[in-house]
Amino acid sequence: MKTKFHLVLLHVIAVVLSFQQFSDGKVMMEYIGATGRPVTFDPVPIDDGVDFHFILSFAIDADASGNPQNGNFSPYWASTLTPDAVSSIKARHPNVKALASLSGWSLGGTVLRWYTPANPNLWISNAFSSLKSIITTYHLDGIDIDYENFPRHNESFGYCIGELITMLKNQSVITVATIAPFYITVLPYIDLFNRYGDVIDYVNHQFYTDKVKTPQGYLKAFQLRVEQFDKEKVLPAYEVNGRGIQGDAFFDALALLQRNGFDVNGVMIYSADASASDNYYYEKRSQAFLLNSTSV
Ligand SMILES: *[C@@H]1O[C@H](CO)[C@@H](O)[C@H](O)[C@H]1NC(C)=O
Ligand SMILES: *[C@@H]1O[C@H](CO)[C@@H](O)[C@H](O)[C@H]1NC(C)=O
Ligand SMILES: *[C@@H]1O[C@H](CO)[C@@H](O)[C@H](O)[C@H]1NC(C)=O
């Protein structure tokens, strides 16, 4: 009995150690569920060697007609991404985490925007409780911030979002927080990051909005964004069938980043909804790239 117990214990320790060694901080970010298509987690290729984050798109502070709800968020991602679906993909792949992305561009025909809450602390408190409920129900691990439209006066954004993330982490509701600026919205995100960068784990900058089509252009954009944020936290990004650099030139860009001394700590892809049509080519190659660069 005793020996068997020890063997089991050793096995557990060995698995934990090898898992830690394998993942080596490489992370894959995959948005999913924004288009309303009946997408599922199951066909997405997940390599054991990376930390794989699914970002459910989106949780929105609005009713179904798009009217703001003073911080009371509701899930609007594809209804196929159920709480059971999340727990089942996490059970099959211990390296999977799931995040709720906040806001996104629009809901139905309504363009969504950050607005200055009448009472910022009430907004934070509503956001905390509604998100805690969604996170618990769906077995989530974190949130991603994807507000895409801002008023001229957006000073409340840094405070409200920064305090929200801080509270969610402090109460152990979440373990991971990411932000997703794009080229027009970078200013409010820099303000947020300058004040609350300690609780932000990754910057999913939407490089495909930087209007660069070549590896050289990508390198320049990357150099700018790591200056604005933190070179350990900024991840290169790719939009499937989308804007910016397209096709294998993206992988040439990743190699160029490495040759210029940047650690490529992960890749963000938008999105699984589009990737089904090419059999997840970019997810497969991105993970192969990340694992290959682990060993050098
Ligand atoms: C946000 O606020 C800053 C500072 O007031 C302002 O310069 C900027 O234009 C505003 N909007 C965006 C989208 O950055
Ligand atoms: C939460 O905040 C309290 C008070 O500032 C602090 O003592 C505690 O260590 C924090 N807990 C976590 C998990 O960050
Ligand atoms: C792996 O790295 C080696 C050495 O840098 C390189 O020659 C090879 O093309 C890489 N393979 C992939 C799949 O990225």
UniProtKB/TrEMBL annotation:
GO biological process: carbohydrate metabolic process
Domain of life: Eukaryota
Pfam families reported for this sequence: Glyco_hydro_18
GO molecular function: hydrolase activity, hydrolyzing O-glycosyl compounds
Keywords: Glycosidase, Hydrolase, Signal
The keyword Hydrolase is annotated on this UniProt entry: yes
GH18 domain ranges (all copies): 26-296
Residues spanning the signal sequence: 1-25
Assigned protein family: Belongs to the glycosyl hydrolase 18 family.
Protein name: GH18 domain-containing protein
